[in-house]
Here is the input.
Amino acid sequence: MEAPNVGVLRSSVREFAEKRLKGVAKVIDESNRVPEDVLKDVASMGYFALRVPEDYGGPGLSVLESVVAIEELSRVSSAVGIMATVSGSMVPYPIATYGSIELKEKYLSLLAKGGIGAFALTEPCCGSDAAAITTRAELDGGEFLVNGTKTYITNAPYADFFIVAVRTGRPEDRHRGISLLVVDREPCVKISKLEMLGYRGSGTSEVKFEDCRVPRENLIGELGGGFKIAMMTLNEGRITTSATALGIMQAAFEEAFEYSKQRTSMDVPIIEHQMVQYLISEMAVLLETSKLLLYEAARKADEGHPDYIRYASMAKLYVASRGVDLVRMAMQVMGGIGYSKESIVERLYRDIKMVEIGDGTNEIQRMVIVRSLLGRIRPK
Here is the structure.
């Protein structure tokens, strides 16, 4: 049973998603953009500022509460769900945890007022090997001069500012030469939207920084200390990104279950056939076990439990891989209609695959889990 506050939150977000997002989810996917009026309505509910503390005007949600909100948004529109994950969790975390008072007052307050943030780490050269990034920030007086290219950046076309991982040291310094900067949306930031298989509308883009001048005060944490902050951000991000998969799983299960009760074959609803029962029951088990593991990971993150990093990766790995399995089963139950754009399952099938790749691939999660078991990874 959910805590009362979590249950109320779930009901509130589900009501918003059903009323405001359900009718435009297909349009968002087909057009690969979220309409401006929808963005404003989502922002007005605080969904792009989920983890912004109340002191700065945000909802101040816990990780678990954020998971529930993102899950409910993603059940209807995974594009909006992943946008809330990035702007609402991955962007405020490093500022709130490591940023100066001035950065908090400026950027957390901006998110609380309806602004949107993006997290720019991945580059064309470097995905899993984030320590090899080449985007450069050179000190020039009281400013950093930033040049380089990031790719697969969610929220980019909508963003008011970016959290950017930059190299401030030598390439051979690897992770020790990386810093984090807050870069405002300026003419020096060039954005090229990408055509992706799923999560369409979330603004996945290539972002080029061309001689962007960034005040030294926009440094998050210490010079050369950005890699650790980025990795800690990803640890929480793996939990909230998994929430988008959980919402997709819930939607796929509901769609297939209802279809199995209405579609008839051999004069009975197909739910009466043993093989369909096998698939439906398997989906139900996968959904519930995914919830249990993900919610436990979120609780451990909220508690600051020493093993929460391992649980975050375990949840990300399990929910991503089993989520793909569940949506595939949903499509199998629905047959041809599930494979067509007449059903939302076709979109869900395209969307769910990203969770096996983004914020650390399944293979990276396995590495993190083993390193944690060996005692080589601990939150600091």
User: Anything to note?
Assistant: The chain has 13 helices and ten strands. The mean pLDDT is 96.
